[in-house]
Amino acid sequence: MDDAAQDLTNRTDMSAYWMPFTANRQFKASPRMLVSASGMYYRSDDGREILDGTAGLWCVNAGHARPEIAAAVQHQLMSLDYAPSFQMGHPIAFDFAARLARIAPPGLDRIFYVNSGSEAADTALKMAIAYHRARGEGQRVRLVGRERGYHGVGFGGISVGGLVNNRRVYPLLTSDHLRHTQDPRNAFARGLPPHGAERADDLEQLVALHGAETIAAVMVEPVAGAGGVLPPPQGYLERLRTICDRHGILLIFDEVITGFGRLGTPFAAQALGVTPDLMTTAKGITNATVPMGAVFASRKVHDTVVGGGADGAVEFFHGYTYSGHPVACAAGLATLDIYEREGLFANAAAMAPRWEEALHSLKGAPNVVDIRNIGLMGAIELSPRAGAPGARGYQALVKAFEAGLTVRVAGDIICLSPPLIINAVQIGRVAEILNDVLKSLD
Ligand SMILES: Cc1ncc(COP(=O)(O)O)c(C=O)c1O
Asked: Which atom of ligand 1 approaches the CA of 59 most closely?
């Protein structure tokens, strides 16, 4: 253990905290501690400035420590700190939903609040099943996801999710999967890759296998994130939309990462020109300051579920104590104000070509087998070390942190998604650090 880590362990008993998605023993032996943040930077406990290459966990889209959000949260805490949302309401929840509806993809303007991306996924899947039930098709309960998809860690999300470690030891809901969209012919493609639209036809095969009348919904991330940043092949999402329509299957986009400007438009649905029936969001909805998520439902789904049943009966037996939490709504409204006032979605669009150039300048660095980008997302895929998949990726994460940059890794894929406030100089710095890191890996 180095001196800084020793200091830290002397100062803090780290044993009580069971950390999520972390190699706990390894981390506690050699911690990476972030103690403050502002704008594009974290500060580590040893006083170093660390460039945030990942917007936290793909979520701090407006950059860190925004005073406007802090002020809105404080004000809300002192005026209405909490109010129930079951059979009662509070104005800010309605105000925020109306604001969200204004930036929604066409027709997806019915907003259901949750507290995380995982809850959004499970909520959307339940909505899909409830929708079919309300239409008299209660047998449509099969859920389709995609290999390498990530939809959080609830039982619904892991059932449609396609990351083996998240699902292999748990009992799952009735689900099936499309193939993932990574295609070797697309290596080093920029933006939407040219090959692979035909993989959407996997849904036709599942229809042939199970019968369309058993399938409620297909859930995909428009751009797979945690599975390694896989932009959809050209024409793929359009094809999926067409097949869903042909068979009465609902299309759900998980926009937990892509929502709130990552591709230069409010949602990926707008950037990519395909509108789903349901859309899950979280993360950037409050700039990650207060946990929140929202499912955006189409009028068709909403009106079918809410329009049915007896007068006075609850139409959808679902919700959370903190659904529409007033403090989260206040943070969300302040966040939307910042996005709008500072034109951050437009900045993401303006910076995207520089981002693309910077990432692709790393082609040719040792072990790099693919580079992918879209909007302000990107991935650098490394060849795995013989017999030790993931080891090189983890070393990249550690070395990048030491060099002053946060990255995420999915196995041996370095994933990047900076705050949307990033400028050209900072993009250059990300590439410089990565270049040095890549040269230093075993
Ligand atoms: C696409 C996607 N969906 C869902 C989730 C889960 O969100 P949360 O961690 O807030 O539950 C994530 C988290 O990274 C995500 O990337």
From this structure: 14
Q: Please say which residue of 279, 314, 341 terminates a domain.
A: 341
Q: Which of 61, 150, 377 to mutate to test the pocket of ligand 1 (most atoms within 8 A of CB)?
A: 150
Per residue in 129-188, pLDDT (tens digit) is: 999 999 999 999 999 999 999 999 999 999 999 999 999 999 999 999 999 999 999 999
Which residue is associated with the tokens 């990574």?
A: 182
The 10s digit of each residue's pLDDT in 50-90 is 999 999 999 999 999 999 999 999 999 999 999 999 999 99
Ligand 1 neighbourhood includes 257 CB (under 6 angstroms)? yes
The DSSP annotation for 283-351 comes to: GGGGTTSS--EEEEE-HHHHHHHHHSS-TTS-SS----TTTT-HHHHHHHHHHHHHHHHTTHHHHHHHH
Q: Cα dist. 382→90, 150, 435 in Å?
A: 50, 21, 13
Q: Whose CA is nearest to atom 7 of ligand 1?
A: 117
10, 76, 285, 294, 329 from 91: Cα distances, Å? 48, 12, 18, 17, 10
The closest residue, in CA terms, to atom 3 on ligand 1 is 151
Residue 306 lies in a domain: yes
Query: Using a 6 Å cutoff on CB, does residue 256 contact ligand 1?
Result: yes
Indicate the top mutation candidate among 254, 256, 260, 296 to test ligand 1's pocket, ranked by most ligand atoms within 8 A of CB: 256
Structural domain contains residue 141: yes
* Residue bearing the CA closest to ligand 1, atom 8: 117
**Mean pLDDT of all residues in the chain?**
96
Residue 279 · residue 296 · CB < 8 Å: yes
Q: Are residues 177 and 77 in the same domain?
A: yes
Q: How many CB atoms lie within 10 A of CB 299?
A: 12
Asked whether 418 lines ligand 1 (CB < 6 A), one says no
Comparing CA positions, the residue from 408, 88, 400, 123 lying closest to residue 281 is 123
* 299 and 398 together in one domain: no
Give the residue from 243, 236, 180 showing the smallest Cα distance to 215.
Answer: 243
Q: Tell me, what CATH number does 43's domain have?
A: 3.90.1150.10
Q: Which domain holds residue 415?
A: 32-62+343-440
For the Cβ of 118 lying below 6 angstroms from any atom of ligand 1, the answer is: yes
Three-state secondary-structure class, residue 99: helix
* Three-state SS sequence of 10-30: HHCCCCCCCCCCCCHHHHHHC
